[in-house]
Specification:
Layout (H helix, E strand, L loop, with lengths): L11 H11 L7 E4 L6 H8 L4 E5 L3 H13 L5 E4 L3 H7 L4 E6 L7 H12 L3 E12 L11 E9 L2 E8 L4
Parallel strand pairs: 1-2, 1-4, 2-3, 4-5
Antiparallel strand pairs: 5-7, 6-7
Helix pairs in contact: 4-5
């Protein structure tokens, strides 16, 4: 395990709940892990037969560690990009079926910026699922009429949920 300031892996209990929620939706999905960090979510998606997992990590040391992990695991359905996620979103050409958004808790504005970037640049497939994680003492609003919560939960000091894109209510 890489020890780095600000690195906050998603706890096992939350990760297990998330992937139970996603179920078979992860298989053959185009997945984007916006703040890959330790890689737990993205690598789990890869191991569950996602078609392609893009792991975006701004910190070069962490990105290099992720690349090593992918090579060690012989994960041929992953790509690690050492770039700021906002820059990636402005240039990306793929549409994603599943997106993980769990930025550093100290930068809560990144959640809204990433959601806006995904929508603005047309990067969400119809009915895409977006996992969002935030501290319980912060508020989380989706802020777009085509994004709707479908599952939400709290565990300890963490709130987490899945929103779905493009579903009329």
């Amino acid at each position: 395990m890489l020890n780095r300031d600000g690195l906050r892996p998603t706890p096992d209990r939350i990760r297990e709940t998330l992937f139970n929620w996603l179920g078979s939706d992860i298989r053959s999905a185009q997945v984007l892990d916006c703040f890959a960090g330790a890689g737990g979510l993205g690598l789990e998606a890869a191991s569950r037969e996602a078609r392609c997992v893009t792991l975006v990590e701004k910190d070069r040391v962490v990105a290099n560690h992720l690349q090593s992990q992918c090579e060690r695991l012989k994960s041929n359905n992953t790509q690690v990009l050492n770039v700021d996620v906002r820059s990636f979103l402005s240039k990306a050409e793929s549409r994603f079926d599943v997106v993980f958004v769990d930025p550093p808790y100290a930068l809560p504005e990144l959640r809204a910026e990433v959601l806006s970037g995904l929508i603005l640049h047309g990067l969400l497939s119809p009915q895409a699922l977006i996992y969002i994680e935030w501290p319980v003492d912060q508020e989380m609003q989706l802020g777009h009429p085509e994004l709707h919560w479908i599952r939400q939960k709290t565990a300890g000091n963490v709130s987490y949920a899945i929103a779905q894109w493009g579903v009329s209510r």
